[in-house]
Design goal:
This protein is of the alpha/beta class and about 575 residues long. The protein contains 24 helices and 18 strands. Helices cover about 45% and strands about 15% of the residues. Strands 11-12-13-14-15-16 form a six-stranded parallel sheet. It has a five-stranded mixed sheet with strand order 2-4-7-6-5, sandwiched between helices. Strands 8-9-10 form a three-stranded antiparallel sheet. Keywords: DNA damage, DNA repair, DNA replication, DNA synthesis, DNA-directed DNA polymerase, Exonuclease, Hydrolase, Methylation, Nuclease, Nucleotidyltransferase, Sodium, Transferase, Ubl conjugation.
Length: about 575
Amino acid sequence: MDKNQVAQALEEVATLLQLKKDASPFEVRAYENAARTISALDDDIERLVKEGRLKGIPGLGPTITRRIEELVTSGRLSFLEELRAATPSIKLELLRIQGLGPRRINAIVDQLHIASLEDLERACKEDRVAALPGFGKKTQEKILQGLAFLAEHGHRYLYPVAEAEGLRMREALASRPEIVRVQVAGSLRRRRETVKDIDIVASVADDADSAIRQRVMNFFTGQPGVRQIVSKGETRSSIILASGIQMDLRLVTDRQFPYALHHFTGAKEHHIPLRRRALSMNMTINEYGLFRGKEPDLELVPCKDEVEFYAALGLAYIEPELREDMGEIEAAERGELPTLVEERDLRGVLHVHSVWSDGKNTIRELAEACCERGLSYLGITDHSQSVGYANGLSVENLQRQWEEIDRLNAEFAGRLVILKGTECDILKDGSLDYPDEVLARFDFVIASIHSHFTLSPQEQTERMLRAIANPYVTIIGHPTGRLLLERPGYTLDIEAVIEAAARHGVFIEINASPQRLDLDWRYVRKARDRGILIPIDPDAHSIAGLADMHYGVGIARKGWLSAADVLNTRPLEELVALLQRRKASR
């Protein structure tokens, strides 16, 4: 249980309290404040609970402290479960629509007597929602857009949610004496940006009896945080977790484990051509094995792991992230698969916000955190002047920030170099939010879109292309502006953007924030093939946000990137030369 999960639970309590007709605004505010307090903690939440150090932290009263301790120690929060059970199911459904908060949900349900999402869609199309006080046509249209988005994405979960659940269960199962091997499989193992459910494959000894299998399944279905047991058997059990995500456990013999792990990792699109290849070699693949010959005279091809499985098919090992039928089988046959980038290859971070704009930590605190992570450079990129909601920096404040960075660079000499950057807004017409004479003084410039998302595809593309053509732009930030499971990106010709970036020598980031993961991995490889170096950027607004580099590396791996394809795997001297290359060639 980490602090983000605890904060999310507290935020959910506050939201569900607001859905009650007799909600106390003071109680709601207490949980909202507690969630912010927990999010801002630098220490490990489990350690704080174990050592009894939550007591006395400002913003955490005794009742909330006890409930946090219950959640961290047991994985469950009975008060939250009671609130969920007492909240009408339609209100829980409406919470999933982007932009609908408790006040509007209560108005819709109480005044229009909405009982389903279909009812709400009908009420919108009949203009009954627009007629409610405080709503109007624009709100009604956004609700319809939210309903359409929910229909397409509503049963998926962000990668970090699924990863935390999957790793926790894998660790629990690995502690059991009956288990020989256990691994997370499915789209989670392939590091897809969103996940529908979680597959876990585990093995027991080849001679394990029914009683052993039953003990494992009892342990699995009895874990903390299990909301519902969907099914339970000796080879497969399925549960619904408190987060709402479904988890399946497949239990096989250890001899079957490599084949089952491969099968349940997927993707189906990868399996189809792989099975065709096997048939051409007089072999058959299924979840229980790789067999030579034809029925009924099938002979198992023994494989101790997936490396041997692929070798038996005449292929180099294909990493799970690449198993999407994007040419990986042909590359494995030719021996041309890349050695994928790893987190340990990263030497620094280039997209970080401090308290100078909308970040939570000082530059000094961020620098110390980077040193602790063994990084050698830190790019500070606070927002530009027109971004009032994020406390964007005026030119005068920029000068003061640069003076602070100079002082800190002198202090951290030999440990870390702090680079002067900006996340500069791309304005509606494609110009940048600082004049050229200011842009020229930065070490590097990340140019990003934060407004006017509804421009036509042609206008949005031209806007981005004009920004790319600016000789002071170094990196394009979160190039499509998407927020996963919340909103689609703005519509533009991303291939034209990649082509222009390649022509002008501009880098395109993988924004590692798990809500973004933008550039999409499908385009990452296209950018790589055009010779664009791709920084993996955390877009961190706190020390905790630096850890999001983990998710960006996953997307980089899915995009076939090696360490050589990633900008911030470069040592400092080479990085600085690359950042200055375009400005120097003006």
